Amino acid sequence: VLRLGSVFSADPAAQPLTADNLYFGAALPIDGRLHTVDTRDVAAAFAAAVHSPATGEILHIGGDDSHLIDQETLFRDVSAAHGITGIRAGRHGDPTSDDGWYAAGDWLDIARAQQLLDFQHYTWPEILDELRSNVGWKFAAAEMTAPVVRKVLERRSPYRGQPGTYADVWDALRRRFGEA
Predict the structure, then answer these.
(1) 3-state secondary structure of 130
(2) Which of 10, 9, 3 lies closest to 131 in space, CA to CA?
(3) What are the CA-CA distances from residue 66 to residues 34, 70, 79, 130, 147 (Å)?
(4) Per-residue pLDDT reduced to its tens digit, 9-62
(5) Closest-CA residue to 136 (of 87, 83, 74)
(6) DSSP 62
(7) Residue 4 near residue 37, CB atoms below 8 Å
(8) Residues near 138 by beta carbon (within 8 Å), at least 6 away in sequence
C-alpha cells in the first residue's frame, strides 16, 4: 500500500491559483506540516512498487527533506513561483484543539519506501524553479498586478472580520463551500 504525501506538480495547470484554491490555502493553519512530493516521484514509486518485494507493507511516499515544509511556506513559495510575492497567509493552528487542523498533512517516515523503491528525484526548490519557468509570460504579468492581488486577497481572507486568533479551518471552509 502506498500512502502519498501532499502531491505537487510543476505544471501550473495542474494546481492553478484560482480564488477557491487561494481561499482554501489561506484557511489552513499556517503552521500545519506538509510533506510534499512531486507527481513524477509518485509515478516512479508506483512503477517501482509493481516489482518490489514489499508485499504487504505500507509505504509512505514523500519527497526528500527539502519537502518537509509548513502550510505558510507552501503558500508563499507557490505564490512567488507564480509571480505574486508578499501574500500573507492565514492564522496559526490552535495547539489545544485536535479539530482545528486539516488532517491531510504531516511529515512522513519515508526511509523504508525510499530504500525499496528509490523514487525521490525532485527537490522542493527544483519543483519551484520549474513551476516558475512553466508559468512563463504570466509571471511578469502577475508581478505587475501583485499589489492589487494582495489587496483583493486581504479583503477575501477567510479570517477577515472573524473573531479569534487561531485558524478555524472547518468554519472557514463551511462559510465558503457549504457543509462538507
Answers:
(1) helix
(2) 10
(3) 11, 11, 18, 15, 29
(4) 999 999 887 888 888 888 999 999 999 999 999 999 999 999 998 888 999 999
(5) 83
(6) -
(7) yes
(8) 12, 82, 83
- Mean local confidence (pLDDT), 75-99: 87
Cell of 24: 482554501
**How deeply is 116 buried, as exposed, middle or buried, from its count of CB atoms within 10 A (0-12, 13-18, 19+)?**
middle
| DSSP-assigned states of every residue in 34-60 | EEEEEHHHHHHHHHHHHT-S-TT--EE
- How many whole angstroms separate alpha carbon 161 and alpha carbon 114? 45
**CA distance linking residue 154 with residue 26, whole number of Å:** 10
Please tell me the distance from the alpha carbon of residue 167 to that of residue 151, in angstroms, as a whole number: 20
Judging by beta carbons within 10 Å of its beta carbon (0-12, 13-18, 19+), is residue 5 exposed, middle or buried? Answer: buried
Coil vs helix vs strand at 28? coil
Per-residue exposure over 38-49, b if at least 16 CB sit within 10 Å of its own CB, e if not: bbebbebbeebb
Report the alpha-carbon distance of residue 78 to residue 9 in Å, rounded.
11
Q: How far apart are CA 144 and CA 119, in angstroms?
A: 38
